[in-house]
Amino acid sequence: MYCPVCRSDYPEDWKVCPKDTTHLLRSAQIGKYKIEGLLGTGGMGAVYRAVNPDTRAKVALKIMNPAVASAESARARFQREAAAVAALRTAHVVKVFDFGAADDGTLYLVMELLDGHSLREEIQPAPDTMDLARVQLVLDGALKGLAAAHKAGIVHRDLKPENVFVADTDDGEIPKLLDFGIARVRTKDSDLTLTGSLMGTAGYMAIEQVAPDAGEIGPWSDVYAMGAILYEMLSGTAACSGETVTAVLQKVLRHDIVPLEELRPGLPAAVYALVDRCMSPDPTARPQDAEAMRNELVTVRLVPAGTPVPAAALAQLSATSQVGLLATAPSKDTVPSKPPTVEDPPPPRKKLNVGALVALAAFAGLGAYLGVRHLNSKRADERRDAGVSPADAAPVADASIDVAIVASPSRVPPEMLAIPAGRHDLGEPVGPHAAALPPTVAEIGEYWIDRVEVSLEVVRAILADPEAAGVKGDAPGLPARNVTWAQANAVCRAQRKRLPTELEWEAAARTTPQDPSAAALMRGTAKLTSTERKECSDAGLCDMLGSVLEWTSTDGPKRGTKIVRGASFTVSPDAGWAASIHFRTAIPAGRGDAEVGFRCVKEPE
After folding, report:
1. Which residue among the candidates 158, 289, 381, 555 is catalytic per the annotation?
2. Beta strand residue intervals within 19-128, DSSP E
3. What are the structural domains, with CATH classification, of the chain?
4. CA angle, 51 as apex, 45 and 57 as ends, to 5°?
5. CA separation for the pair 401, 441 (Å, rounded)
6. 153: phi > 0 → left, psi -120 to 50 → alpha, else beta; which?
7. Which of 150, 236, 456, 600 could form a disulfide with 219 if both were Cys (CB 3.0 to 4.6 A apart)?
8. pTM for this structure?
9. Could you write out the DSSP letters of every residue in 153-179?
10. Catalytic residue at 158?
11. Cβ atoms of residues 59 and 112 within 8 Å
């Protein structure tokens, strides 16, 4: 097995690199393409920088996650994405060169490797908002690509500044659309999407994407997203923003948007009118597809024809980005992978001795793909992250297996609790909550878990940053929140621990009291009160319910996301599934959230 990051070889039964937790590949070559490095990961797969040996051209190679490759619906979705994008004959959508299956059945997709930057890097707050000539150039190109997709029956459904890429080419700058991973493709024979599912990124979702009864999703939904992008390009501020996904979705549902004219006065009235129409809560009031919106943009014209277009003024000057269809742009919230207190990993070693590293074998289960189908109830819609695309997960046969906590051996650190090895009955039957973890009987080895969540004081001490994480006014002893996945992972590693997998988290949570009325959930005001330790097991495992949601090491189904578990302190005790230990969602790993913290686990010593 081969790690594309550290380029080390491992035994055939290993799944994850112990140095960087990267998913291992069977070899450094897929089909005829030689892999050179990792670009980005997601629930459906990962994207690598690779070389075509015939032409020696650099390409982006997307490999489908083997954990879902056996699911027919997931394979259909992968092939649909490849065929749909490959069929588009426009320079304004990332090109697909090839797709197929390797000898071992691995599905792959070969795309152009782009040089340039994402639109996100150009958007800056006032007074440094984008030059109007650049707004016209980028939006016009993006709409050309989207119009081609709409004509082919494709609805993107996850348009945002990160998915608009300004490519540097021999013909100049060319805006291109990325990531058709959750696109809806209509054909005369099928409609390959999931119904009743929440897809997209919260601040750019039309109301019909959030509330199923608000109308059908179609090209007009993409028009709303492009209107939101235009709003942000002109104002430097997102139309719908908030500290949590819940707050953002509530703004979308209420259409709580500051008029663009208040943020960017002095533009032609027709510009404000176009933005208002595109972002109308009534789908029928919007331009009905990208071509119609582009025609209106051409009529409005932000600048006179022939106006010179200046070079991009990037918010963060860095080395040229290289991306493929699912490549992830660097996040300003991502902390260095080597904080001062974390020891550097040993240098790469070829053909590692299995006996010497047998304790690391538990890492083989990290990052297993777990499909997430999203919430259908209105309350649940308001409690989940919208930056996630769903993927099917086949339910496992139900079983009833009781799991008990055993007395902690003396070798277990006092701040941790031992969870014994055994078979754990996890998940829920597929029913009213589409995002539930399907019923699963999991064999899990013994592990130790922190009795309480990691505090803000500990996070700041380990990261050597007195301003890291937390929300203004948080006491040092409160659980650390507003912490990114990378920060949480670094803190655990500094203590020779790691983040739990989703299955490990639930196995531990099922041993604790599960009564929402007794947990530290919302009581009139949403105040974090987990230090009271109201929700502890007899063995002393606390606050798995009713404090902060908790990061896990498990990948979400959308690129760059991780699964979080537990019920947040902001949820009312009568919120049903959203107030239970079964609640789960996925959020971008590079973004902190005021409702998300973490605890660590480790293997027995």
Report:
1. 158
2. 29-30, 33-41, 45-52, 57-64, 96-101, 107-112, 114-118
3. 355-602 (3.90.1580.10)
4. 125
5. 8
6. left
7. 150
8. 0.55
9. TEE-----GGGEEEEEETTEEEEEE--
10. yes
11. yes
